[in-house]
Amino acid sequence: MLKVKIAAIVSLVIISCTNNFKRDLNQNPNIVLLEKADSCYQNKDFVHAIIYYDSLIKRDSLNGQYYYKRAYSKSMLFELDGAIIDYSKTIKLNPERKNAYLSIGMIYFATKHYREAIPFLDKCLDIDPNDTLAKKFKESCLNKLVKET
After folding, report:
1. Which of 105, 68, 102, 107 lies closest to 87 in space, CA to CA?
2. How far apart (Å, rounded) are the C-alpha atoms in residues 64 and 101?
3. CATH number at 30-94
4. What is the pTM of this model?
5. Which of 31, 53, 98, 117 lies at a 20 to 30 A Cα distance from 10?
6. Which residues are CB-contacts of 66 (< 8 A; sequence separation ≥ 6)?
7. Would you kindly state where each structural domain of the chain is located, as residue ranges?
8. CA separation for the pair 52, 40 (Å, rounded)
9. Residue whose C-alpha is closest to residue 137's, from 38, 113, 5
């Protein structure tokens, strides 16, 4: 009798969880897209990650995480102008996202726009004065600018 009650309870829990999942999926159709986008992103399939993040952004243009991951994906494919635009949108939505400032600074550094990199590296350091990567890139920018003069 106890086994029958436990089995009934387990069945109800499974049905409830399944129904909750279906309800959540119906309420938030972005779940499937997000799982696919994040899977591509984690597997370094940046071309497909961008496609999925594009779709997510069309559905929710106020999610800074989507812009950030699309920006990173674009930067990995050397779509640097598009990456800067997306990192900038990330910053607009979340001004304390230090890695977005750092990433823009690093793109400018990589493209030898040292003067343009410095304000972004400074902003990253305003948020986190101990960010060693931002410090190193800023120092390198300053050294490159001294050598140019």
Report:
1. 68
2. 13
3. 1.25.40.10
4. 0.79
5. 31
6. 37, 53, 56, 57, 60
7. 30-94, 95-149
8. 9
9. 113
